[in-house]
Amino acid sequence: MLPGSMRQIVIPTLEQHSGKTAGVDFGVANNPEFLREGTAVHDYYHPPKTVIGEIDSRAGDALVEIYGAMDAPLIRTDIETAEMVKYADNSWHALKVAFGNEIGTLSKHLGIDGHRVMDIFCRDTKLNISAYYLRPGFAFGGSCLPKDVRALTYKARSLDLDLPLISAVLPSNERQLQRAIDLITAKGRRRIGVLGFAFKAGTDDLRESPMVTVIEHLIGKGYDLRLYDRNVKMASLTGANRDYILNHIPHISRLMVDSVEEVVQHAQVIVIGNGDAEFGRVLDTPLAEQVVVDFVRISEQVSGNAYDGLCW
After folding, report:
1. Which helix H or strand E contains 294, and what residues bound it?
2. Which of 40, 105, 217, 232 has the maximum number of C-beta atoms within 10 A of its C-beta?
3. Number of helices and strands in the chain (H, E)
């Protein structure tokens, strides 16, 4: 058996629960989710988390009485979220195994010890083994991730190695980019305002910024754009970034404005392209008939017909 990731408790409706009992409106399934042979008892009493999917608070309260004393964080949520967590857990474990195997395969063909590589890789718990890159949202970009994935993919092909997982990373990223474009164009509005188009907040780096690709697509389709990013201002740019804007995307520089307010006044659709905290305030006072398309979940508290998130 695989190492356990959580204890999951799913509470189906009475009609869904095959073991119906009069007066009982909850059931238990997939409990515990995983047990390892040889350590089953320890695993049962020490799960990384306990997830309760509940129909209502009364049903959840009953299971909290049973499992609340376990030495693990306890999370209560709706049934559908609990079920998706279970699938996410298992798929993530499968993905990790496949990734380790592909890195190991490529390493061996290059005369490198793949175990040593992954041992060092796993020492990084700030980024590599963490929640940092596991937040649903926009496509990745910048000067490092795309370049290095291309390098690994190219090297594998030159060695005639089939590494389908690593080879699928960039195509998957491109699909996410297309979903972002489709989300904007589906609004049926022509005046678009973009807040944040560097590849991440706090930088002026536009190299391989996915927002630049979105902007260029919209320009090519005849949309009327205004762009703002306080870190990307022509007067203060120097070196490679200034050269990149002037010589590679000069049409974008002509659409840049000096404030959030100018974007808001122009736009029928406001696109939030990176997580600069400055952009959260546009959600407080939307103008009539405006739509906000958010690629980064700038706030956890926003909903409604005038707001649309990329993955939520």
Report:
1. strand 291-294
2. 232
3. 11, 8
Backbone angles phi, psi at 177, to 5 degrees: -60, -45
Among residues 9, 45, 14, the alpha carbon closest in space to that of 28 is found at 9
Report the catalytic residues.
Answer: 144
Average pLDDT rounded to a whole number, residues 44-50: 87
Range 66-74 average pLDDT: 88
Residue 165 in tokens: 């997982």
pLDDT tens digits along 199-232: 989 988 888 999 999 999 999 999 999 999 999 8
Structure confidence at residue 45 as a pLDDT band (50, 70, 90): confident
Which tokens is 201 given? 């907040």
- Per-residue pLDDT, 44: 83
Averaged pLDDT of the chain: 87
The per-residue pLDDT for 32 is 62
Domain 88-172 has CATH 2.60.120.380: no
Q: List where CATH 3.40.50.720 sits in the chain.
A: 88-172, 177-309
Which fold would CATH assign to domain 177-309? Rossmann fold (3.40.50)
Strands (E), 54-133: 74-77
In the chain, % helix, strand, coil (3-state, to 5) comes to 40, 10, 45
Residue 130's pLDDT is 96
HSE, CB side, 13 Å, CA atoms: give it for residue 119: 5
Which of the 8 DSSP states describes residue 51? Answer: E
**What pLDDT score was predicted for residue 14?**
36
Q: What angle do CA 305, 308, 312 make, to 5 degrees?
A: 120
Residue 30: CB partners within 8 Å, gap ≥ 6? 8, 9, 10, 86
Question: Which residue in 47, 50, 51, 52 sits closest to 26, CA to CA?
Answer: 52
Task: Give phi and psi for 53, each to the nearest 5.
Answer: -95, 120
Give the helix ranges, DSSP H, for 110-248. Answer: 114-121, 145-158, 164-167, 169-185, 210-220, 239-248
